[in-house]
Amino acid sequence: MSVIAKYLTSVRALQFLQLFRFVALLLIGIVLSKTSIGISQIGTYETFLLISGASCFFWTGGMLQTMLSLKQENSNRKSEAYFNIFLIFMVLAVITALGVFLLQSQIACFVGFSGGRIPYLKILLAYIVLSCPANLVEYIYLIENRPCRIAVYGAIVFTLQILAVTIPVIYTDDLGYGLYGLLLVTAIKFAWLVIAVLRFSRLKISGKYIGIFLRLSAPFVLSVLIVKGIQYADSFLVAYKFDEGTYAQFRYGAKEFPLILLPAVALSEAFSARIANNRDMGEVIENLKRESKHIMHICIPVAMVAIITSKFLYPLVFNEDFYESAFIFNIYCFAAIFRFIVPESILVGKRQSRPILAAASINILVNIVLGLVLMNFIGIVGIAIAFLVGNIVEKVVLVSVVKSLYGIRPSQYLDTKIFMYYTILLAVCLAVSIVI
Hints:
The chain has 436 residues and is mainly α.
């Protein structure tokens, strides 16, 4: 156990938890596609997750970042921080659920539900109230440096989630029972959170702390809203224009390749911290270039195989209804290589948030405008192409800003020859996947 604890740092444990979460969602999707509930009900399930996620992702993500920065300054003493943050999350979760309830008809119309009603609304509202605060669990363990608890928590709750959602649907052919299972697991996560708060925090309400926390959270919330809102913008475009079945096809395909996404994001975040804490930025950037090259050599060949084989694997792993999802996946898989261009690591390390927000805003604008145009000609594939173009434009803007502010060229933090080599190979694989 001591050997495992030595290897399993908090950051690695959090990465494992994110991997557990991804695998759980993937396996649930595969199992649902094999049942007889139909693609329309699968689309309803995906829209359920879309509404719950889109309604709170920005404030939960922004406040979790704020929570980390505040607690790091006071990590040596037990305080009322977690309890007050828990109260904030509870109040905002209830407000969010109330907002969804009051705007039900508008939301239902926007995502394509007939009759102005959201299916399984009561389950959705309860899920929002419980799931938003439950996000705190792994971050409390991260701050308290409890990596084993992070790993155990992730393994238990996401295993339960797979079983609780899929088994009821398999035996009843009723999506509603699967959503009740999801709600049950969320209640378990919420109970886990209460125990963690009782364990690590004093139960004292502090109006001063709440005021400071909310004020400091504002820029983080805005940042998350812009940077991460792109994926929700794409999903809402599809939900607005197409039916539940087509939306399910899009959602099953619109997934960045995890073997690129997770290592690249971790690389970017890790080197942001190193740049912020290291005076010799030249050495750090050189290490960034070397690490990204190493990861590309491992991940990109796997992505190439995934692009070539997805056309055959999607109908096999899911079913024939998801044949078109394969091409959506291929475009997102190709777009993932641009994750290795990480000028934002330098900007974050230098605490330059405005260029990141500006570039992300341009990305969203390009994404939405181009997506609205292309989807009228080539359907949901147009949304995926708009996502690709928007990401390229964002990286071009960030690269230009870093070069302008610090005189740092892309070739200093990225092996541009290897990157171009793999980009061309992925493009060839994408072209091959169209014609075979």
